[in-house]
Write a structure and sequence with these properties.
heterodimer, A: mainly alpha, 68% helix, 1% strand, B: 365 residues, alpha/beta, Rossmann fold, Alpha-Beta Plaits, six-stranded mixed β-sheet, 14 helices, 15 strands
């Protein structure tokens, strides 16, 4: 008697009935339900709320420091580039507080914010064990990665806009609006200045989104979300250090953070694209490579968490 | 002994044996597999099948070794084995979480992983304990799982979640954060997650783990109810009592191999029958039984006398083998053994298990 024979003699009426009762499985073609759940998960975490609070506090500190220290007053002759120029400008126009805050937060705080969310994306679910239950629901692995990356993108946009909006808000409140002197010396209206600031935000989102793709990839390698976050932040810092060593200028254009500070070119008249275009290309290439790597890695991974 | 059990052993790694559940090979043997309504695609008649399913991890360790599962529709299949015997890895392969090194498996007639998007919505699973986001409430955790399920109707989400929570007796604690749940509550939430949608198959890995006796009884009666409504249940457990109480079928895992698989009643009857003789002259009984050609004659000591109610004497047991009980009695009488009591040794599943695996319930290396 084979196993099949031994096992086949089961009263089957009950199961036949059950089968008839169940309607065929129908799945919705496109739904944002999972993505909305993901966004809720990201913003529902106290840790992430605290992180956003830190991002938002920096422009506030800058605004008050400039307003009440008296330094940089009367500046605006500058256009000297870098933060000094920006901070001097802040007293003339509140918009610059947003720019200064973005510049100050770009080396560490913004990448950290992205890395926390990206590092947690897959490794966090693996760490608490929810990954196996999501995949068994079933969620296709490609779909899971797509939703996770969209979550990272949304968090990136939020982080950048949060810094800019809080900065501009407090800047306008403390210094008021007025004509904006661009880095090239040209004066433009507040509206045009705001538009330029929006361009800067867009550029930074593209740069950080590529960085988020690196984070997502690292997140598929481990079950330790904190480890993934630290690794990715470390990578950003290392890239910036290498970028500052002049002897290594040959590799500078290939570093992931090399073009991040080029956003200043969007504040010239006319906009200089010498660095912006390669910056965008670099981001797209980095993003594509690491998303593909994440997909290849996660698609075939044994889920033993 | 193992060859006896081998009548239904299907762990042999020979691909030549017919694929279980494939009507083309099983059907011609003249077996009425299932009702006609179930004829059709491959794997029909069985809710779960696997053929030569093997997982070798990168270290070279073989966690699952050529197992051929066959879980008939409507069965409550006890997937029994000590910790580390490969049960969970098998379940992970069945759900498409772990890629088999070799072999294939089907769930509800669909191949895994190719058809998993089609069949998994009909499968509720509890894998290696419950796992939820600690800072979300029980209800929010279920909501998240439901949101991830493309086949779930958002319109009925709230009511399905409440239904599932009530079914496992968690309604009152639904708003509490998962981190504050006790182990038993976590286990219940895991089962609730498996019941969010109507299922045809439930794969439950150690569902009573961490539950108090009351909770254990509740889960067992829940499983029995579900089975009565036609749901097939694959229940992995290391508890023999659980299998004895609620399972219709059993598959025994041992160090990565499926050493036995059959209906529970069949497995019991396969165990080599032992007889016992209670006597004040055990040495005479041993000599008599040995002369009769019975194997494994053991004088057990005074322990057993209390078990069987007749005071005094020593219990001698032996494998009945091919001998007839009446012939044994005749021989004992002929040899003038003072017999106080004589009878079969009741079969319990633990003996069966020990027979099959050669050891008790430790942790498999």
């Amino acid at each position: 008697m084979s196993a099949a024979e031994a096992l086949s003699q089961v009263p089957s009426d009950a199961s036949a009935v059950a089968r008839q009762e169940l309607p065929p499985v129908r799945s919705r073609r496109l739904s944002t339900r999972f993505l909305r759940s993901e966004v809720k998960l990201i913003y529902g975490r106290r840790r992430n709320i605290a992180g956003m609070a830190v991002l938002a506090v920096v422009p506030i500190i800058i605004a008050f420091a400039v307003r009440y220290s008296g330094s940089g007053r009367g500046g605006g002759g500058g256009g000297g580039g870098g933060e000094g120029g920006f901070i001097g400008q802040a007293t003339n126009n509140g918009l610059f507080v947003g720019l200064v805050a973005l510049t100050v937060e770009l080396p560490l705080f913004l990448p950290l914010a992205v890395a926390v969310v990206a590092g947690d994306a897959v490794a966090g679910e693996a760490n608490v064990g929810t990954l196996r239950y999501l995949l068994a629901r079933p969620v296709q692995r490609t779909r899971l990665l797509a939703v996770k990356y969209l979550g990272v993108l949304i968090a990136t946009v939020t982080a950048v806009l949060l810094v800019a909006v809080v900065g501009v808000g407090f800047g306008l409140a403390l210094f008021g609006a007025g004509p904006v002197t661009l880095l090239s010396g040209t004066q433009v209206s507040t509206a045009v200045g705001l538009f330029r600031l929006l361009l800067v935000c867009g550029y930074l989102v593209i740069c950080l989104a590529a960085f988020g793709a690196v984070g997502l990839f690292v997140s598929t390698l481990t079950e330790q979300p904190i480890g993934a976050t630290i690794a990715v932040v470390g990578l950003a810092l290392l890239s910036q250090i290498l970028d500052s060593v002049t002897q290594l200028s040959a590799i500078h254009p290939y570093l992931p953070t090399h073009y991040w500070l080029s956003f200043g070119d969007l504040l010239r008249d006319p906009i200089s694209t010498d660095q912006i275009v390669p910056g965008i290309v670099s981001a797209v290439v980095y993003g594509a490579i690491f998303l593909a790597a994440a997909w290849a890695r996660f698609g075939s991974k044994d889920i033993t968490s | 002994m193992t060859s006896q059990a081998g009548t239904s052993v299907s762990a042999a790694p020979h691909a030549a044996s017919p694929t279980i559940g494939d009507p083309a090979t099983v059907g011609p043997a003249g077996l009425p597999l299932q009702s006609a309504a179930m004829a059709g695609s491959s794997g029909d008649g069985f809710a779960v099948t696997s053929d030569g399913l093997t997982k070798r991890f990168r270290g070279g360790q073989v966690a699952v070794d050529h197992i051929a599962l066959a879980v008939p529709h409507g069965a409550v299949y006890g997937f029994l084995g000590p910790n580390g015997s490969g049960k969970t890895t098998t379940i992970r392969m069945l759900l498409g979480l772990v890629r088999p090194t070799a072999g294939t498996s089907t769930l509800l007639g669909g191949r895994i992983p190719e058809d998993s998007q089609r069949v998994l919505p009909r499968v509720g699973a509890l894998v290696e304990g419950p796992a939820f986001h600690p800072y979300l409430s029980g209800r929010d955790n279920l909501r998240r799982l439901d949101a991830a399920d493309r086949t779930a109707d958002p319109a009925t989400c709230t009511e399905r979640i409440s239904g599932a929570l009530d079914r496992v007796g968690l309604g009152a604690a639904a708003g509490k954060r998962f981190r504050n749940y006790s182990l038993g509550m976590r286990q219940r939430l895991g089962i609730a997650a498996a019941l969010l949608q109507p299922r045809q198959l439930l794969i439950l890995d150690e569902p009573t783990n961490g539950l108090d006796p009351q909770g254990t009884r509740e889960v067992r009666s829940l499983v029995t109810d579900l089975a009565a409504s036609g749901v097939t249940v694959l229940l992995s457990t290391h508890l023999l009592s659980e299998v004895e109480q609620i399972c219709t079928h059993v598959g025994v895992m041992h160090v990565g191999k499926l050493v036995a698989q059959s209906r529970l009643t069949d497995l019991r009857s396969q165990t080599a029958q032992r007889i016992r003789v209670q006597t004040v002259r055990p040495e005479l009984a041993v000599a008599s039984l040995t002369r009769l050609g019975l194997d494994d004659v053991v004088a057990a000591g005074a322990r057993a006398s209390a078990d069987h109610g007749v005071a005094g004497g020593v219990e001698v047991t032996a494998l009945l083998g091919g001998a007839k009980p009446e012939a044994v009695i005749a021989a004992l009488v002929h040899d003038e053994v003072p017999v106080l009591a004589f009878g079969p040794v009741p079969v319990n599943l633990e003996d069966v298990f020990v027979t099959l695996t050669g050891e008790g319930f430790g942790v498999s290396g």
